[in-house]
What we know:
Shape: globular
Oligomer: single chain
CATH class of the largest domain: Alpha Beta
Structural class: alpha/beta
Bound molecules: 1,3-dihydroxyacetonephosphate, iron/sulfur cluster
Number of domains: 3
Strand order of the largest sheet: 2-1-3-4
Order of helices and strands: HEHEHEHEHEHEHEHEHHEHEHEHEHH
Mean pLDDT: 97
Low-confidence stretches: none
Radius of gyration: 19 Å
Amino acid sequence: MGLNELQRSIIELKEEKNAVLLVHNYQIPEIQDIADYLGDSLQLCRLAQRVEDAELIVFCGVDFMAETAAILNPDKKVIIPSQKACCPMAAMLPMSTLREAKERHPEAPVVLYVNTLAEAKAEATVVCTSSNADRIVAKLGADKVIFGPDRNLAYYVERRVHDIELVVVPDDGYCSVHRFMGGGDEAMELKRIHPGAEVWAHPECEPEFQDRADYVLSTGGMARRAVESDATVFIVGTEQGLIDRLSREHPHKTFLPAKSGSECAAMKRIDLGNLYEALLKEQHVVTVPKNTADKAREAIERMLLMS
Ligand code: 13P
Ligand code: SF4
């Protein structure tokens, strides 16, 4: 793999500063190429727990992911290359809505998607990601669970757990990137052209698309399925960065977007230029107030123990 000059300078600087580069599957290929670790939200949470030797954590992903790494590493400096890399879904759960739901259902545990801000996580019983949400909810052994903020992930969980009522907060939390894929009409049209192809939807996709897909998988689940499956064509219902990753890792297989133009603008705020500058100046430092971090850490660590 030939690296460009900026990529080589980043690697040099990273080594000089004993930094570790954690990269989400939705980042641009040039950043994926130089990642120390590349993965989905759950894998990156786990890795953030195991970076004792690094002095600096550079998180190439969105705000809530970098915050999670900072919460798990209170004694380390965590930086994110762009302060504009903010996931809109994570900002969709107002604290007042969450607290009202807790008051109305005091007996119900609170399961929050990792795509939330630290303040909300601090109010949760346990956090979940798209790769463990159903198992986490089932394991709690409760009749009723407060769940948020993604309505489509709630649908995914409801289809897989039985006799558990989900109180979903807010009414309509969603990811616009996955909502943009609609009911999966374009994916089905592609399947007609490639009858042997597998159709994958992410749990953030609309219910109709989830129901029509062959598999509903997190981005990490998609990466595993690409290795296991005998199919050679895949219609991928998630963000372009994962398609870039899989196309590079499996050059003899074909990965087609379920809907063209499915890009997460927040993830794409990070580029080689601001990554280099971030490393050089050790900016932008992610901080979470101690009280909030201590409570949020419990909910995150509970998830890591349960999954
Ligand atoms: P994954 O946990 O599947 O990587 O998803 C993260 C995310 O933000 C999806 O939009
Ligand atoms: Fe947030 Fe959607 Fe982007 Fe994921 S793809 S980071 S949920 S906006």
